[in-house]
Amino acid sequence: MPDLFQFPERLARAPSVAAACGELVSHMEPLGFTVYAIGALPHPDAPYPADFLVTNWPQTWQKTYFDRQFGERDPTLRAIAGAGRPFTITDLRMGRMGFQPSPEELEVLDFAAGLGLPHALIVPIYRAQGYKGIACLVGAGPDPDPETRARLHFMAEHAHDRLRELSAAARIDPEIRLSKRETEILILARQGLTDAGIAEATDISIRTVRFHFENARKKLAARSRAEAIAIAVGRHLLPA
């Protein structure tokens, strides 16, 4: 297992977001955790990722999170708002975060478990000037014991700060503008419409829908449609 106390130094030497993420995975994988989602904490009125978000969640998860509006009922966000301390998925399921998740909230956790990712440590992060962030370290497990929780918590805090720094340096053009059609298509996609549904709603062809999607994705430097929507929401390019 890599030396935990060398982790901050190795992160500091990482020249890019990808390199820093590689260091994170190499340190947490021996503990049974391979997936991460690290970034600014979404605003309660817009419960989808902000412009600072680094994740390797499977594409299936990212698409489903938007298509089924998981952000409206994600119990991890509710737990952070109520407790403000690190917790595990087991803590959530067992009602240790001050509430018993509803069936709709459990659906979010169950979907992740169905992807082979039943366990996670979720770490709320607080920094100067009121900044709020989140680091989720997810995997097959096992459920982290106290020592593993402490290790993952240490990694989460340091990885968040380095990724925030690297992401700020690589941030896309703040003056970027989406066209009216690109904005309309992203709004409809966020509402869960398929390409065919968007084409029908806007009276254009499916091919044209995909053309505008691709243009928006490139402008936002996003790797997927789900990420394009997340970035657009975070940059206030779509209405709340």
State the gist of this model.
The protein is α+β, with helices and mostly antiparallel strands and 240 residues long.
Structural summary, described in words:
The structure is a single chain. The chain is of the alpha+beta class. It has two domains: 4-169, Transcription factor LuxR-like, autoinducer-binding domain (Beta-Lactamase, 2-Layer Sandwich), CATH 3.30.450.80; 180-234, Arc Repressor Mutant, subunit A (Orthogonal Bundle), CATH 1.10.10. Helix content is 50%, strand content 11%. The protein contains eleven helices and five strands; from the N terminus they run ααββααβααββααααα. It has helices at residues 7-13, 17-28, 59-67, 75-83, 89-93, 103-114, 146-169, 180-190, 195-202, 206-219, 225-234; strands spanning 35-40, 53-55, 87-88, 119-126, 132-139. It has a five-stranded antiparallel beta sheet with strand order 2-1-5-4-3, sandwiched between helices. The chain is globular, with a radius of gyration of 18 Å. The mean pLDDT is 89.
How many domains? The number is 2
Number of strands: 5
Shape descriptor reads globular
Give the helix tally: 11
CATH class annotation of the largest domain = Alpha Beta
The largest sheet has its strands arranged as 2-1-5-4-3
- Low-pLDDT parts are none
Structural class: alpha+beta
Rg estimate, integer Å: 18 Å
The helical percent reads 40-55%
Pfam families: Autoind_bind (PF03472), GerE (PF00196)
GO molecular function, one term: DNA binding
Keywords: DNA-binding, Transcription, Transcription regulation
Protein name: HTH luxR-type domain-containing protein
